[in-house]
Amino acid sequence: MKTLIDRRKRWGIVLAGGEGERLRPLTRLISGDDRPKQFCRLYGGMTLLEQARRRAQQSIRAEQILFSLTRAHENFYLHELADCPSQRVVQPRNRGTAAAILSSLLVIARKDQNATVAVFPSDHHYSDENAMAEAVERAFELSRRETDSVILLGAKPHDAEVDYGWIQVGSQVHGSPDSFLVQGFHEKPAPLVARFLFDQGSLWNTFVMVGKVFAFLEMICSAMPGLLKALQNFPAVHAPGEELRIADAAYAGLPSIDLSGQVLSTEIQRLIVHRLGPVTWSDLGDCEQVLAALSGGDMEPEWATTWRTMKPPTAVKRLAALAALG
From CA 262, how far away is CA 202, in angstroms rounded? Predict the structure, then answer.
């Protein structure tokens, strides 16, 4: 019974409003248009958004997962999310991850003030989805005890990557051998700093997060009080059976705010990191990262051979020419 009650209190947010500009040469090759990467079938026969949706549904009831979207992508998301219009939270424009997460958190808070929320990016790759699901479960369990904290999932790095967020681990959380207090947070560090963090045993931030809805709200309000006020004044609204649309006025003059760099890095006292097991993780941020993540084994998609035969400068020029032709 307790497990059933806990599951009813679980909510999810799938982030699907980004532009994916760095991956545009590759996604255009695959799809033949300028769709953002979350709506592209990079591997496995499914779009990245569909994969993220399935990932979230392993821990959360399907009807309690919200999708943070951007109005300009309507042609892409209407087809893919046709079965859940009331779960679509549509921003007038992309203003970074902080606004995307906060706008959905406010929707959840109005429905259930005692909710526990998991946030999932829609453009990431995990080598073992079952191990990932187990880690999310551990994070939900930890959140029941650490109600004032936001739990991040951290992946063990395989090199001194400068394009990721790094989490310095502190002391172990009592009763949870793979969970640690956060000692420091570094977003896209300089090469020497990245090397130091790698040698020190720090973790990559996967940007998957779990916490009580008000733990998230208090963290964001502490770091960015103006953002909370702006969105509270213009709540997302919808007619029955229709998507939730955020008013243009709510985003008028709103700067782009990155949750990692401008919130998490300043609120480390509110964070706990749970270390993933033996899982290879990638944020699929650029074309070469995608190719590296999917190379070898049974997962390699058909487009990989074509991409390899095109030298990157040539590929970019050819795809740019195709774009110009419409």
Answer: 20
Are the CB atoms for 187 and 165 separated by under 8 Å? yes
**Structural contact between residues 182 and 117, judged by C-beta atoms closer than 8 angstroms:** no
**Predicted TM-score (pTM) of this structure:** 0.91
Token pair listed for 305: 């051979």
Q: 3-state secondary structure string, 228-294? A: HHHHHCCCCECCCCCCEECCHHHHCCCCCCCHHHHCHHHCHHHEEEEECCCCCEECCCCHHHHHHHH
Distance CA 277, CA 158 (A): 13
pLDDT digits (tens, 9 = 90+) for 294-325: 775 566 777 877 877 775 554 444 444 444 44
The label of the residue with tokens 């979207």 reads: 69
Say which amino acid occupies 198: F
- Residue ranges per structural domain of the chain: 2-277, 291-321
Topology (CATH level 3) of domain 2-277: Spore Coat Polysaccharide Biosynthesis Protein SpsA; Chain A (3.90.550)
